Amino acid sequence: MSEQATTQHEHDEPVEDQLLPANIIDLVTFGRRLRAARIIAGYDRVNDLTAILRGRYGVDVSDRTVYAIERGEQMPHLDLFLAVVAILDPPGDHFLPAYRSDVAQLIASRYSR
């Protein structure tokens, strides 16, 4: 199947069935879970977390960006997400409630083996 045919097929699917960032992750739930994980890990102030993200992991992120993510207004970049998980060390399923149910089930099944 050509790349063009694949692209065309993807556009024929209803948007809710496509795996797009906007419909895979519930940003509000993700943000709330991020804030909870940050506080549980002892980072009451966002700037303490962002200082470590910048200094230890080289992730260029501002306090404002983290606050926007926590409010569900912005999607985190992958490098930020991975660094946050490394720093905060939440349980493996901590962010699953923020994912679309079929995606969460797929992730859970892969890591429960």
How would the blueprint of this fold be written?
Layout: H1 3-12, H2 21-24, H3 27-40, H4 46-57, H5 63-70, H6 78-88, H7 101-111
Task: Compose a concise summary of this entry.
The chain is mainly α and 113 residues long.
Count of helical regions: 7
Give, in order, the helices and strands.
HHHHHHH
Structural class: mainly alpha
Number of strands: 0
Overall pLDDT metric: 82
The separation of the N and C termini measures: 33 Å
The parts where pLDDT drops under 50 for at least 5 residues are: 1-10
Q: State the helical fraction.
A: 55-70%
CATH fold group: 434 Repressor (Amino-terminal Domain)
Largest sheet: none
CATH H level, superfamily name: lambda repressor-like DNA-binding domains
**What is the C-alpha radius of gyration, as a whole number of Å?**
16 Å
CATH architecture classification name: Orthogonal Bundle
Strand content: under 5%
